[in-house]
Amino acid sequence: MRPGEDAEVIVRFEDAIKTFETGKGKLRREVTAVDGVTLSIRRGEIYGVIGYSGAGKSTLVRLINGLEPVTGGVVEVDGQRVDGRTEEQLAPIRREIGMIFQQFNLFTSRTVAGNVEYPLVRAGWSKDKRKARVEELLRFVGLSERAGNYPEQLSGGQKQRVGIARALAAQPKILLADESTSALDPETTQEVLNLLRRANREFGITVVLITHEMDVVRSIADRVAVMDSGRVVEEGPTARVFSAPETDTARKFVATVSHDEPDSEELSYLSEQSKGRLVVVDVREGVDVGSVLSAAAARGVQFQIVFGGVSVLQRQSFGSLTVDLTGERHEVDRTIDELSQLTTVKEVSA
Ligand SMILES: Nc1ncnc2c1ncn2[C@@H]1O[C@H](COP(=O)(O)OP(=O)(O)OP(=O)(O)O)[C@@H](O)[C@H]1O
């Protein structure tokens, strides 16, 4: 290991840039898909990459195995530079990286076992070792009975499981999953996620998961990067990003799964119904909103919880409550002031 290198880091981007040229002649233009990304993915974690369509997620992940060469900056996998390598030089690095795709990309002319075996043939495994490994993997993904079937005889979820078994076959250190679950129904999605989590726990494999579904990220990622227009606008432990998003993009994503704040239509209804002052109070781990409200009630302030939700993620509570406060004006003022000293309070109608 070179000085300054961190053994815990398995993928490192430093000011990584990827531009594409599209069109010809007058229509020629440059698209910056990845715009100066610096981040580190730790060994053994499940790392989620989220963002709207076109944000640059797939391109960023394809830089990891050199499927797309960077235009600028550094990409390192397990201490080895990926940028500036020839296809030949990339081959040993790619053996450490498995990939599963949204569209499965199975060989239709090979059986399930043949698909899983394929990377082992390429990696030069002996026939006996290949057979044992294929059996082990098909057991792992619950498809032992299907070894002799062809992909067209399988359901979408089963095909995806074959894809996972194939990606894991040659014992890679990293698994890249590109929106691997979005073509599947919710139940199958959960099944695939459970498999990724098991692969992560049982084999210690680092998983990099791209998705635009926050539910998916919330259920399995340890840390998450939020991308917008080629940049990572926010990054950190999933619980932190969910409980206290710092950017508008992250806030919007979080709002899609935790609908705990009223939208404008709901707010106008609540304002019409409100008898006093409406406030939206953020709920966080260790913030005792209840005590403030109980004390206020003892002073004659009435409170009505009219909207809200609180969830727990990685043992941290978070959410928000919309409260209608009525009573003596100065007592209501005092209650809002006390709440504001504890947490973020937004008054939404006076
Ligand atoms: N091969 C390519 N040639 C030209 N432009 C490309 C190419 N690949 C990606 N892009 C452009 O780069 C930008 C980022 O695309 P990318 O596929 O990485 O986004 P994404 O966040 O993964 O989107 P999605 O969620 O829709 O898959 C987009 O503007 C896209 O059109």
Word description of this protein:
With 350 residues, the protein is α/β, with parallel strands linked by helices. It is 37% helix and 30% strand. The strands form three sheets. It has a six-stranded mixed β-sheet, sandwiched between helices. It has a four-stranded antiparallel β-sheet with strand order 2-1-4-5, covered by helices on one side. A hairpin with a 2-residue loop joins β9 and β10. α3 packs across α4 and α4 crosses α5. It is elongated, with a radius of gyration of 25 Å. This is Methionine ABC transporter ATP-binding protein. Keywords: Amino-acid transport, ATP-binding, Cell membrane, Membrane, Nucleotide-binding, Translocase, Transport.
Secondary structure elements and pairings:
Elements: E1 9-22, E2 29-42, E3 46-51, H1 57-64, E4 72-77, E5 80-81, H2 87-94, E6 97-100, H3 112-122, H4 127-140, H5 156-168, E7 174-178, H6 186-203, E8 206-211, H7 214-220, E9 223-228, E10 231-237, H8 238-243, H9 248-257, H10 264-273, E11 277-284, H11 289-298, E12 302-313, E13 316-326, H12 329-342, E14 345-349
Parallel strand pairs: 3-8, 3-9, 6-7, 7-8
Antiparallel strand pairs: 1-2, 1-4, 4-5, 9-10, 11-13, 11-14, 12-13
The chain binds adenosine-5'-triphosphate (ATP).
Adenosine-5'-triphosphate binds at residues 20, 22, 31, 33, 51, 53-59, 212.
Q: Radius of gyration in whole Å, from Cα?
A: 25 Å
Bound molecules: adenosine-5'-triphosphate
Give me the strand/helix succession: EEEHEEHEHHHEHEHEEHHHEHEEHE
- How would you describe the shape? elongated
Q: What's the mean pLDDT score? A: 88
CATH topology of the largest domain: Rossmann fold
| Number of E-state strands | 14
Structural class: alpha/beta
**Tally of alpha and pi helices:** 12
Quickly count the domains: 2
Range of helix content = 25-40%
Give the end-to-end Cα distance, rounded to a whole number of Å: 61 Å
Largest sheet, strands/sense/barrel: 6 strands, mixed
Low-confidence stretches: none
What is the spatial order of strands in the main beta sheet? 6-7-8-3-9-10
CATH C-level label of the largest domain:
Alpha Beta
The fraction of residues in strands falls at 25-35%
CATH homologous superfamily grouping of the largest domain: P-loop containing nucleotide triphosphate hydrolases
CATH architecture of the largest domain: 3-Layer(aba) Sandwich
